[in-house]
Structure formats: structure tokens, C-alpha cells
Amino acid sequence: MGDINIRHCAPGDYGAVVDIYNHYVEYSHATFDLNPYSISERAPWFSQFGETGPGQLMVAENNGAVLGFCCSTPFKDRAAYDSAAEITVDLATDAIGQGIGRQLYATMLRNLAGSELHGVYAGIALPNDASVHLHEALGFRKVGVFEEVGWKFGKYWSVAWYERWCNVISVNF
User: Fold this and answer.
1) pTM, entire model
2) Residue 54: cis peptide before it, omega within 30 degrees of 0
3) 122 vs 72: CA distance, rounded Å
4) Which of 79, 82, 105, 164 sees the fewest Cβ atoms within 10 Å?
5) pLDDT digits (tens, 9 = 90+) for 103-122
């Protein structure tokens, strides 16, 4: 596949990011969104990210093709949660299993270690053994499960919640 470049998302990447995400909307329980987005519908979401601080959007690309993205967003919109962010990673289907998600997360976690964030949190719709393994390998710990919290594809799905402290960067990436 060649060298993978991890960098902040640029406007020219928006179409690829939306396409990757929409695949999960339409075919996976990994996200609980039910309807695909257009780039213009995602514009407010894209506008929240910067190159520093707690809200970042990074992409993995190879030879100009975006293979996946990782983002950190506010955990909740109340001021007391300002030191917490939710973090997620999504990959193009042909990029799964190649270590790209781990590279994206490792880069994001290093970036966030210098921000004002205290902790990052990830929700994993179950079952998803690959995502659980990735999070645990990067130092996240399971803190609980919301049982049958989401309804998609005609059934209920549970979500496991994982946390990791941002100031802890001594994990083997």
C-alpha cells in the first residue's frame, strides 16, 4: 500500500470523509445515524475542527486517497465537560485490518496530549471485537455498557464506553 500520511483534514478531503462515514451509516451498527449525509449537511460538523486544541479531525491518506479519519469532539455541551472529548475512527472498507486506525488514533492521542483535555472517551457499539481490541491496545479501559441503547436495522444494540487520560502518553503506539 505504500506510506500512509496522517494529517489534519483539509476541505478537499470532505467528500471522502463523508463517503467513508456514510458507508457506516448505511451498512453498519457502528454509528447510530440512520440517514446518509451530503457534504453541505456535514458543513457544521466540519467547521468545529482546528489543528490544535480538543477538537481535531485527521485523515490517513495514501497517494492522495483518503483511507480513513479520526476525530475528537466535545463529550457534552456543558461547560464542566470542557476537559473531556469523544474520539472516534472510521476507515474505508478496503483499509480495514492494515493498522491504519491505530496510526490515526496514535497520532490523534499525541496531539491531544498537549491540549487542555483531561480525558477522551469512546463509545463502541457491540459487538465489535476489532474496535474493542484497538482501544484496549491504545490504553483505553472499559468503564461501562449502556445495554440496548440504540435501535438500528430492526434490533437493539448495546454500547460499551471506554476512557483514556490524555496526559498518559507512555503507551506503545
Assistant:
1) 0.93
2) no
3) 10
4) 79
5) 999 999 998 887 888 999 99
